[in-house]
Each structure stands twice: as C-alpha cells, then as structure tokens.
Amino acid sequence: MITDMTKGSPLRHILIFSVPLLIGNIFQQLYNIADLVIVGRLLGVESFAAVGAVAPLFFLITFIIVGFTNGFAVVTGQRFGAKDYVGVRDSAVVSTILSTIVTVFCTVLCTIFMNPILHWLNVPENIYHEAYWYIEIVIIGLLATTLYNLLASIIRALGDSKTPLYILIIASVINIALALVFIEVFHWGVPGSAIAVILSQAISVIMCLVFIKSRLPILHLKKTDWLIKFDKKFYDSAYEHLRIGFPMAVQFSILGIGIIIIQSVCNTFGSNVIAAVTAALRIEQIATMPMMSFGVALAAYVAQNFGARKFKRIRLGVIKTSTINVILSILMAFVMRFWGTHIIAAFIGTATKEIIDIAHKYLLISTIFYFFLGQIFIYRNALQGMGETLFPLLACIAELLVRSFAAVYLAVKFGYIGMFYSGPIAWVSASSILFLGYFGSIKHIIFKVKAKLHT
Length: 455
Description:
The chain is an all-alpha fold.
C-alpha cells in the first residue's frame, strides 16, 4: 500500500515502514546464508570456503547495482512526495533503462576478467574451481538481481515496504528448496547453489511485476512511455537520476572494494580463516540488520519530506532513528558477544574448534564498535534521501583508505587478529564524516530555502 510520509507522526511512519523492511532484509540475507549453510553442511568446509572466498566480489557487484537502483528510487520518492505522478512514471522508465545498461556492462566486464580477478583475490588452488563456477553463474544471472532490486526500491519509494517483504519470503523459501534439490538430489555441488540464487531472483522479478500490474496504477506504463525520445527532456531526467544514483553506486562500490581487499588478505591465511570470517560476517550482517533497516526506512521518509520541503520533519526523524540505533547497537553487541559462537557452530556443521575460536575472536573485536556502524546507517541514508552525495562519498573514500591500510598493515604486524580491527577503525572514520556532513548540509539547505522565500 502506498504511504504518504509527509504527514503524521515521523517515528510511527519510520517504525511501520522499517519492521517489514527488517524482516525483508533478513530474508534477503537468506539468499546467501542459505547457500552457505547448505553448502557447509552438505559439501564440507572447503566448499563453504569456496563460496566465501568469492562472496566479496558478488557483494561488490551487488553493491553497485543497489547503489544505482536506490539512488534512482530517491528521485522517484522525491517526485511522489511532490505529487508529480507523471514524473514518477518517467522515473520508472529512465531507471529501468539506466539499470539495464549498467548491468550488461558489469556482466560483460566480469566475465571477461574473471580469472585475473580471482587470482588477485588470492583464492587458494584447492577451492579455485568451485569458487570460479559459483561466481560465474551468479554474474551471468545478474540482470535478474538488478531488476528485482530496482522494482523493490521503486515500490518502497512509494511508501510500501510490506510487499517487497512478502515477495522476499516466498523467493527465499524457493531459493532454499532449489538449493537443496540441486545439491542433494541432482548433485550439482556449489554451482547448483548459484543456480538456485538466480532462479529465485528471477521469480522475485515476476512477482513484483504482477503486484505492480494489479495494485499500483501509478506505475502502469503505456507503450508511449517506452517510446523514448533522446531529447533534452530525456537527458535532463537521466542526469537527475545519475546525479544521485552514480555517487551512491560509487559509495557502495568503495565499500565493496574494501571488503574485497579484506578478503584478499584473509585468503592468504588459508581455508580455516576464510571459513571462520565468512561465517562471522554473515552472522554479523543479520545482527546489524535492524540498524540498517531503520536507515533505509529513514531514506524513504527523508526523500518524501524533502520533496515536500518539510525540513523540520526530516530533523525530527533523524534524531529519533539515531536514538533507536544507539539502543539497537548495544543490544546486538550483547547478543553477538555471548551467543555468536553458538550460532556459528550451528552455521557450519563440520566446523572445527579452531574455526569457531577464530570467528569468536572477530566478534569480540567488532561488537565494541557497533555504535559507530549504527550511526553510519542513519546519517548516510538521511543525506542520500535529501539527494546530498558529497559527504557519503567522502565517508566511503575514507572508509576504503582506512580499512585497506589497516587490513594490510595490521595483518603483517599481528596476523589475522590485526586484520579484524580494520573494519571497526573504518566505521569510526566514516561515521565522523557523515555526522558532520549531515548537520552542515541540513543547515545549508534550510538557509537556501529561506533565502529563496525572501527574494
């Protein structure tokens, strides 16, 4: 259901919007986690490590797609908040065209350079073959991932976070069922897991289209909407989308590159460390989902209110969600420190005591810094909802540089334990920049609006 978030209680809107989003994000993680659990339990630690060794490359490409699609959806949300419904349909068309171009480019580029990329990632020889085929299959089916993320982002931009949730639940169940069938019955091994991911994403796209056709007349596009004239109007609209989408994609890609650098360092320590870090990171991603979900909900809320020029509501929403994330960061840190290893032990049925101990050490270090990670989700999404891309970009660059330097330097000095500190140090740096950037930007925007009113 479409929701106008420019009226009523800010906290109520954000809470109602974020709860389905949280559940949906958890099910989104199940696409990867189901693969890892099934692979780890049915095929063993080496196959588990093979998927984990190339996961950062998959994340990087997915981050680029999510950055573009979320950025394009900000324009959709702003036009919806401004009650420009013709502009909403125009945004859907332009977003689809641009997203398809980006996806095709990424698919071709990664397919051509797959072997050099995997060698640069230091993927061990004993897991190279399985790692190669897993990531290659996922890349080939990338268009399905793009279209789902785009359609879900547009639906959320109109204030509906429940429908993407329902679709994700269904698709996640399908993904798990297909992975079990392909691995256990057909004996396709690791590639079978990748095929399950792509097929379930394709089903998600179909379900989104069916929902739009039956329930969202505002997005019913006619043939004339697709008869694109490459004139000034189209280029202006494309520029408006790329002005937000491209910096967001760069920001997400910088995060992905940072993860790849960490994985490259991690891969030098062997299969046990790879498996431990892979498991710990997946569990941590679920633990931090509540904080991330409030951030994404805030972006939709801010985009609509920015379009309606209701800046006081924006500030109030940011304060309330920031406070909630402080509480969540403390709660999630407590849960992960005391129960994280039990979850990891269940995660990899064949895990040795060494693997579990390594994962536990990672969690003991990272949980101390969850506060800073929670604030990153808030202030980055608030800035992006307003269409401000400079400070999020600067924060991502700082995070990449700090994370990369810390990972390489500390790993040399202290081994894999030193590498575990690279993420937390990067969180502190990025959150500081975003905090200052938000308060500077909101004051500047309000000043410009007041100046226009007086002229």
